[in-house]
Request: fold
Amino acid sequence: MNLAESAAPRPTDVYFFATCVVDQFFPGAGMDAITLLEREGIRVHFPDEQTCCGQPAFTSGFRDEARKVAALQLSLFPNNWPVVVPSGSCAGMMKHHYPTLFEADPVRSAQAVALSARIFEFTEFLVHVLGYQPEDKGADCTVVLHTSCSARREMGVHLTGRTLLGSLNGVTVAQQDHESECCGFGGIFSVKQPEISGAMVEDKLKSLKATGAERVVSADCGCLMNILGHAAWKDEQDGRKTPSLPGEHIASFLLRRTAK
Amino acid sequence: MSEHNLNFMPTEGFRARAKDVVENPFLRQSFRGAMDFLITKRAAQFPSPEELETLRTLGEQIRQYNLGKLPALLLQLEENLTRNGIQVHWAETPDEANAIILGICKAHSAKLMVKGKSMVSEEIELNHACEAAGIDAMESDMGEYIVQLAGEKPSHIIMPAIHKTKEEIARLFNEKVPGVDYTDNVDELIQIGRRVLREKFLVADIGLSGVNMAVAETGTLCLVENEGNGRLSTTAPPVHIAITGIEKVVEKLAHVPPLLSLLTRSATGQNISTYFNMISGPRKPGEKDGPTEVHLVLLDNGRTQAYADEQLRKTLQCIRCGACMNHCPVYTRIGGHAYGTTYPGPIGKIISPHLLGLEATANMASASSMCGACGEVCPVKIPIPELLMRLREESYSAPHANPAMRGQGAGYSRLVTSIWRGWAAVYRSPALYGAVTWLGSRFRWLMPAKQGGWTSVRVPLKPAPKRLRDMLRERG
Amino acid sequence: MNARDRILAKLNAAPVLPKADPDVASWYETHRNQESTADKASRFRSCIELAHAEVYAVTQASWLQKLWEVLTAKQIAKLLVAPGTAHGQRAINELSPSDVECRAYDVPIEDWKTEMFRDIPASLTSARCAIAETGTLVLWPDADEPRLMSLVPPVHIVLLDAATIHNTFYEVMQREGWANGLPTNALLISGPSKTADIQVTLAYGAHGPKELVVLLIGDEA
Reply:
């Protein structure tokens, strides 16, 4: 599906909402996503006041706290430009939960609904808005793609990452078992229920490794933090010095493969 | 509320029980294998995404339509059942329901009750009540029979003995059933169960069953099953007692086929169950078999609390297919017993707080990664993740007047609340956020090596040396 | 107030959220085809065979011969029949000279329950109609052909007229006007009794019939 041909004209400007995880833990992924967008001739605006979408508090049952944080973000995107988010779960929060979060506040509710329509997950934006056709310049390799539950079930953009990787000539995308199953992150869940979350990420890593892929890519840094954090822990346990399964954000992978 | 001392384990022990299963590779593999099997079978039943989606929408509409008219439909059901000769009883609590059932047993000097599968009877712990009253209550669903013989509880609402291997069942039969040699041949094990239970069906005084749907316009009780024990329980003994939650009523017979189709395809991946048993009355004059008395017990047990709230009411749409637990990565890792409630898995997390109060279930809702698999497969589109978040909110917020739920605020902690308030104070302020994250990146080496549950299987989290905003600033 | 009044009071105090009556009919119209009698018969057959039932195509003239063959092949010497039905009478008349004994269900179950549970190897009933979509027999047991006939004997043999096969369950209840009145017990049967309760391994003959045989009566060949 290439919506770019039928939909609105190609935007000249976008906002970039990095998410708190990318800002603090995966800044390289954010940088690469911005570079990739700019290379496509798009001006990328990064509102400096941005913090977090509010999801950690929201899913923990602290709606008031989530609302306060969300209200800040709501005010950061005044122009009618798309807002690109390099995370399915934060995009899902802003697109689907902001409107209900501000239900009781007519002004902010209207803002939230309007913003909702402009929220795009990064791979969704590349495929459906830009019609991005990457030209692969890298060596042949096999990767495995992990898609977050929010990207899959909330945003419905589980196919766009696969589309992007599939258009790279030298890249084989391996198929893991239980692909659609959660990696066990779930934010606070990973801390509150470490046994269950640990079992889930253990199984996820096994499935990913069983494919024989050289690396894992994902469009969600929350999942990556969990999966790679467990992979590194496992490597330490096994006395390995090099990562048994390296991984990165899909933006970094795409940028490297297509670098001139 | 009820004085009845329900035998359900408090959620306090949840983590420990979950840990036991997680650390048992054999059980883990057995749950994983069984759930994979059910997931695959369900998927094969819905080859067309369009059909699945429109049928789920229809199922949701049917359930919501009927819940919208619930009080009127219950009266209509009562009237038509009564006209058909079925005696209707109402119970607000498990104690009341047990008292009604025991009363009927007593009136017939009953010694033996055979039970078809009924989760509501588990909910009220009927077997305990019968035991105390000197009545032998015998489970006849193969899985329930095995679980009862082992002195356990069901670990899955559709497959009660899913946690047991055939070898364990072989040993159990060898030990507990007189005259049975060890065999782990599944066919032989089932035939042993059949032989034992046939003798019970022959002499039982009372047959007890659940209800999958009750049709108001015709006064009909519908039961879905594969084994035939449900039919035997409702046909062979002289008295049949059915028990159901008040939410199971539908107005029209025409509502039944879509729900039946969704139920069997979602539950076990069958296009239909072996039997669909529609009971509209006791034996009529001239008929040669069937019970001479049929009773229906309508149970509330907290359902009216869910009903009172527009959002929470969606909990009652459930048709008890179990697809949410089959697809739940948490259930798959820990099995049903860890939950310590009658209904495990995602549906258990959202229904149990109404049955047992949030005091006993406050932590259940937190045991979810919010992956959304349950909501995605629910045949009647219950927004389970949304309801889990609502329950977290009800549980963790400070106790207040007129709460929507019994036990509201049971999970409230001044400390946790102030942590979230502090978090919000930082993240709503660009300046504070900037300062805190700047410090985090500069003093990243100060991050502790042990970070609670996170580092049990992961390396510690450490902020990057430069934040994205720093990198952008430097780039100019 | 008793429990009934208290429950109803709580429900009546809740917000009223009326919803439109869902259009079940149009879902079936859009999603299920109307098939020819032959197609329905073949869909019915393949579905119920998948569920482990045996199906034999017979005619009005030939079904007794097939019945006898089935019983002989299974070494069944006693058949439970309903003497008040035409097919039951025909079985009594035509099987009696053979080595198959026809046991008539002619008295209330209380008078012979033990025999029913222990000494009846097979039964013969008719089906009221059937459902092609799911391979389902529809039975309305009555005073002549009581409920336990299709449940207790280990082998259940069913006569079905192919002309009575409907496309869907929804169609059956609409065409036959079930909403206007149902018997004390209406049954859908879609194969022999089964269970997968032990390690999800399928086993037949859990509590009901171990074998289900359908004599599918079609036109003369």
